[in-house]
Design brief:
heterodimer; A: alpha/beta; nine-stranded mixed beta sheet; two-stranded antiparallel sheet; B: alpha/beta; 15 strands; 27% strand; binds flavin-adenine dinucleotide
């Protein structure tokens, strides 16, 4: 079985994240870049299946600037067999539609039985790429899975929906997305880190994929204004002297939020 | 001339598994009414459409398109996406609004990818200028506000639940008609079972869009002791939230999680109990109007954004707070 795991490089959420007020595009220099945690969990789903099923080919795929190679190699160190990296200067500030078109084209080109994505990235937080990619690939999507069962010709799981919990399934090929209820990823060990350097790593451009950023048939979403909210300041801080409960009550009443 | 207004906005109504109009549709139709004439698309199992259509008119749908299909309860997303495609074709709207919920996002994503429409997600507001409909977004935990729109054509906008205050007035004589949907033939995942969440017996407000939220963190220590959060919430008439650590520890279900990878809230009052205030938690609550925090650790980062912070033990401070609020009620 061939599993493609979609991973994204994101600014570390533990740091300050900045947007350029001129372009509205993430200021990548402002914070450290990491492999998105949800992408690591997605990879873990694939790797634990591969542990039990040795004929599994796990490919990681990402669309990101060239500089994120080090981050993607980390996924190889964790155990993926090869990487496909879509790199193209015209992708800077790509919207959801273009992101989905590029990913879908690269997935078709590579061939797949199963695509595993995160339910939502921590930077864009769109939560739509998996279903968009499924639509473009003309395969079913099973999103927001809190548990996953992969069989040789099918995939299923429990999906946390809005007011309900669904059990869903599909024959392969299919696209799934997983939630953070799935286990943390394994660590890359020393052997994995060494092996990663020798694993196949392919960089492809949009032209090779036949995807056009500006295309009269595809409307794009564009940012027309960006502004920074004033930072929030702290207020009063007291140490409980035995009457803090009373004090909070007074504060709430004075502010008409009791 | 088309039977639909020039400024039509197609709204995909969300229907619960038991066939009722989802409660948050008043806000979604309210949002549409700010920028045009709401034309509400209702996709239900056979026989359920008329009731949902009437419920939609109650919250402002002047025009309702009803697409009934037995597949809506057996196949994921594709029936809704197919119906959206048919509605957009018929109405030629200026924008398509969908709830930024799990089901809403999937349907919007499929529709936008299929029709190559611009997709603007997680809007907290909508507006109109000379060129069309715009969406505003709160990015990176409320640090930035971004406005987006489509380069051409009608944008597909998913609207954050609980973010819109506008409500449209009830429509006494709505135009309700059925919509012919050509199946796309796309393969879809099958829904093998549905377990609908029973609406809890309490009158506690929903977390999304709540005016007040009381959240508990790892500092509560156990599922049993998390009760304290519920008690304070009930005295204040607040919704209950939690940190990811509290969710991971099993004190509450994942749906309670506030933050980066949970729900984003913007209430009048947010009370954080035994929560350190990690940046990912703050990302989901720092736009609250007033923040109160109780934490044993005087250096907890939550105090950096709290309007009123108490360095103290939740198990002594909160019972006293509850008693004080009760005695003044
Ligand atoms: C104001 C703003 C500024 C932005 N600036 C940037 C920017 O500078 N750089 C940037 O890359 N994006 C940026 N984005 C997001 C970008 O425009 C695309 O929307 C993004 O690549 C995909 O959206 P998402 O992260 O919301 O995906 P989601 O739908 O939330 O992602 C779900 C899953 O899809 C997969 N996935 C998504 N994107 C990729 C990818 N690129 N490669 C591999 N797998 C993927 C992952 O498995 C992910 O877990 C910005 C978004 C906004 C709102
Ligand atoms: C990609 C990613 C996404 C994330 N998304 C989220 C998210 O959406 N939401 C979220 O919340 N977190 C999220 N996190 C996790 C986040 O980093 C923190 O780990 C988490 O918020 C900590 O929860 P906490 O404050 O309850 O626990 P802790 O950080 O352990 O804090 C517990 C606090 O309770 C206090 N305390 C203990 N006992 C008492 C007492 N008796 N009285 C008063 N105070 C007491 C302690 O002093 C401490 O400050 C995410 C992390 C990552 C990497």
């Amino acid at each position: 079985m061939k599993i493609i795991v979609l991973v994204k490089e994101v600014p570390d959420t533990y740091g300050d994240r900045k947007l350029s007020l001129e372009t509205g595009i993430a200021d990548r220099a402002a914070s450290e870049a990491v492999l998105d945690e949800i992408g690591e969990r997605s990879l873990e789903v694939a790797l634990s299946f591969a542990d039990e099923n040795p004929k599994t080919d796990v490919v990681v795929m990402s669309m990101s600037p060239e500089s994120s190679k080090a981050t993607i190699v980390k996924a190889l160190a964790m155990g993926a067999a090869s990487a496909v990296h879509i790199v193209d200067d015209t992708l800077s500030g790509a919207d959801l539609g273009l992101t989905a078109e590029a990913l879908a084209a690269a997935i078709s080109r590579a061939g797949f039985d199963l695509v595993i994505a995160g339910n939502q990235s921590t930077d864009g937080t769109g939560g739509v790429i998996p279903a968009m990619v499924a639509e473009l690939l003309e395969v079913p999507q099973l999103t927001a899975l809190r548990s996953v069962t992969i069989e040789p010709d099918s995939v299923g799981g429990v999906r946390v929906s809005d007011n309900a919990t669904l059990t869903v399934s599909s024959r392969l090929p299919a696209v799934i997305s997983v939630t953070e209820s799935l286990p943390d990823a394994r660590f890359a060990n020393f052997k994995g880190i060494l092996a990663a350097k020798k694993k196949p790593y392919e960089m492809i451009s949009l032209a090779e994929l036949g995807v056009q950023p500006d295309n009269a048939n595809s409307a794009r979403s564009i940012m027309v204004a960006v502004s920074e909210a004033p930072p929030r300041a702290g207020g009063v801080k007291i140490v409980d002297q035995g009457d803090a409960g009373e004090k909070i009550a007074e504060f709430l009443i004075a502010n008409r939020v009791a | 001339m088309s039977e639909f207004a020039e400024d039509s906005i197609v709204v995909l109504a969300e229907v619960t598994p038991s066939g009722e109009l989802a409660r948050n549709m008043a806000a979604l139709i309210g949002a549409a009414s700010l920028v045009g004439t709401p034309v509400v698309l209702v996709v239900t199992p056979p026989g359920a459409g008329a009731d949902v259509a009437r419920a939609a008119a109650q919250v402002g749908a002047a025009h309702v398109l009803v697409a009934e299909s037995a597949e809506v309860t057996t196949l994921l997303s594709v029936p809704a996406a197919d119906a959206l495609a048919a509605a957009a074709e018929l109405v030629q709207p200026d924008a398509i609004l969908v709830s930024n919920s799990i089901e809403g996002r999937d349907a919007a994503a499929r529709f936008a990818a299929r029709t190559r429409s611009a997709l603007c997600v997680d809007a907290i507001g909508v507006a109109r200028d000379d060129e069309g409909v715009l969406a505003s977004h709160s990015v990176y935990g409320g640090t930035y506000e971004v406005t987006s729109t489509a380069t051409f054509g009608a944008p597909v906008i998913t609207v954050r639940q609980g973010a819109i205050e506008a409500r449209a007035s009830a429509v006494a004589a709505p135009v309700i008609r059925s919509l012919e949907v050509a199946a796309s033939g796309r393969r879809a995942a099958s829904i093998d079972s549905i377990e609908e969440e029973t609406q809890s017996a309490t009158t506690r407000p929903e977390l999304r869009g709540a005016g007040k939220v009381v959240s508990g963190g790892r500092g509560l220590g156990s599922k049993e002791k998390f009760e304290l959060v519920d008690q304070l919430a009930d005295v204040l008439g607040a919704a209950v939230g939690a940190s990811r650590a509290a969710v991971d520890a099993g004190y509450v279900p994942q749906s309670y999680q506030v933050g980066q990878t949970g729900v984003s809230v913007s209430p009048q009052l947010y009370v954080a109990l035994g929560i350190s205030g990690a940046i990912q938690h703050r990302a989901g609550m720092q736009t609250a109007k007033t923040i109160v925090a109780i934490n044993r650790d005087e250096d907890a980062p939550i105090f950096e954004i709290a309007d009123f912070g108490v360095v103290g033990d939740v198990f002594t401070v909160v019972p006293q707070l509850i008693a004080a609020l009760r005695s003044r009620a």
